Amino acid sequence: MSLTATFAKPFAQSSDENKHVILKAIHPFLKDRSSVLEIASGTGQHAVYFAEKMPHLTWQTSDLMEAHTGIKQWITEAGLDNVLPPLKLNVSEDNWPSCQYDALFSANSFHIMAKHHIEDFFKNVSQVLEKKGIVMIYGPFNYQGHFTSESNERFDAWLKQRNPQSGIKAFEWCNQLAENAELMLLKDIEMPQNNRILIWEKK
Q1: Around Cβ 8, how many Cβ atoms within 10 Å?
Q2: Which residues contact residue 137 at a Cβ distance below 8 angstroms, ignoring those fewer than 6 apart?
Q3: When you count CB atoms within 10 A of the terminal residue's CB, does the N or C end of the chain come out lower?
Q4: Can you list the positions of beta strands (E) in the chain?
């Protein structure tokens, strides 16, 4: 008798909880666009939910190789034509897509990434954006050198215990990197649970 190994589909509670409010915030910026590249798709939950709710978009997932199995499980189960299998993408390597997109989205990634990865992200992002393309980043940020809540401060300490190079990033620093990459801040949206959505547009 042969046994076939089965792997449980990954599930992130936070992605399930925040998908509704994120959709409400980003939909106005995506209603007239056709293609999105998602950086660090994680479990794939956001991708299939947003692709279902915005069928006019082609949603391209991407992540490191270890996340691909889970993302593919979510995509297969969803059965949607407009969400694409994940690309292998490390923001600090030369494996960025050769095509361009109307928008780029990433959630809960910047506080996981080391500073040099975010620097590399902004160095490369313009090459995958169409003219007037937008970058949408969801997650916590610090302002004027301060945490926006005590819970964010505790979260930052927890992140740094796991990986000293991670942690909540400063809005001003990210915005300067964006400006250096010819991106202009379009919107800074306050979100529940002390998060933000930062939206930049390619000049």
Answers
A1: 7
A2: 105, 106, 107, 109, 110, 174, 197, 198, 199
A3: N
A4: 35-38, 58-63, 83-88, 101-107, 129-139, 141-142, 169-170, 183-191, 195-202
**Lateral strand order in the sheet of 83-88:** 83-88, 58-63, 35-38, 101-107, 129-139, 195-202, 183-191
d(CA 179, CA 127): 15
Instruction: Tell me the pLDDT tens digit for each residue of 137-176.
Output: 999 999 999 999 999 999 999 999 999 999 999 999 999 9
Domain with residues 13-202, CATH architecture: 3-Layer(aba) Sandwich (3.40)
pLDDT by residue (tens digit) across 95-116?
Answer: 999 999 999 999 999 999 999 9
Please tell me the distance from the alpha carbon of residue 45 to that of residue 15, in angstroms, as a whole number: 7
Kindly report the backbone phi and psi dihedral angles of residue 119, in degrees, each rounded to the nearest multiple of 5, phi listed first.
-60, -45
The Cα-based distances of 172 to 43, 71, 141, 145, 187 in angstroms read 29, 32, 9, 9, 14
In the structure, what pLDDT confidence band is assigned to residue 7 with cuts at 50, 70 and 90?
low
- Distance of alpha carbon 63 from alpha carbon 86, whole angstroms: 7
